[in-house]
Amino acid sequence: MAKKRATVTERAMRMENMYKCNVNNLLASCAMPLTVLVLALYCLLPLAQAESLKVVYAVNAGGDEHTDQNGIHYEADPLNVGISSDYGKHLLMIGRVPEQDEVLYRTERYHTTTFGYDFPADGDGDYALIMKFCEVYFDAPNRKVFDVLLNRKHTVVKQLDIYNQVGRGSAHDEIVYFKIINGRMHYEYGGEIETSDVRNGRLRLDFIKGALDNPKINAFALLKGDVSQLPRLHKTEASERRVEPEEENKPRASRPRDNQQHQERIVRYNDRSAQRGYDDDDDEDDYDVEEGEADVPQRQQQAHHQQQSQQQQQQQSTQGSKRTRSGPRQPNPYSMDDSSILMPVFIAIGAFIPLLFCLCKL
Asked: Where is this region: Disordered (predicted)?
């Protein structure tokens, strides 16, 4: 019995060892293919991500070809209509954009009338059109204002005032989203879907001449795919064009109004500091620049009355000083000639010479 039990135990151990060997051999044989598969997936993942956002067409308007830091290759401007300009090169820097990509905002194409570009689409899908602008000439708002029309029908940017958006010498991007379904372009505006035909697989981008100067474009790029991966401007997001119809009738915020309020605040602050006799640096923190805008006219009147009262006081003080003068104005002793100071010395020397001559004869 003991021998039978030992034999059974040995057989069980042999079977267990054989099972372990088979499992180890199986794992060893599968390890290499699994490793290769993981490495292949790891290498193909960046390619899949890159294909999720495809650059269909990109142009550096008025300039040469350029590849930006996001890998978007902009072709040289092929257009012969209008005027290409590199006036932006005289600026020391372009704000809101890395130095590598400033070239996209330094050159531009403009025209004295409406002009535009024809460029290819890439079938059905989600699209994003990035238009790059920079005001390099004007230094005030309401000097250059124009519209942008896409595919001859859709006003995707209305009344664009670059300076009013970001000022002078700063990058500004306008991003427009749309879809192409069954060869027709679909653009959402104000909650409604506008459609138009994509003729011969090409789109049209027009810059509409308005009453205020000439339309222009610095660069633009058409991308297809996952629009959530769109590159943004440096340290800030680009403006996304989603204008509601009721917003068109609202008054536009103008920089001169802000400057006028700022000047009014400075004048009022200076008047108060002059009355109290404080130094500008010490009293600067006491002035509240967040006062309500409702009482701006009242504060302007108060500042105007204070200025008038100060001018009247100054006039009265000057008139009073004129009336209290007694006698003629005394000469300034520091304005006398050097000859008047040396005259007594010359007289003393002239009197001493005869006296010395007489003493020598004695």
From this structure: 233-338
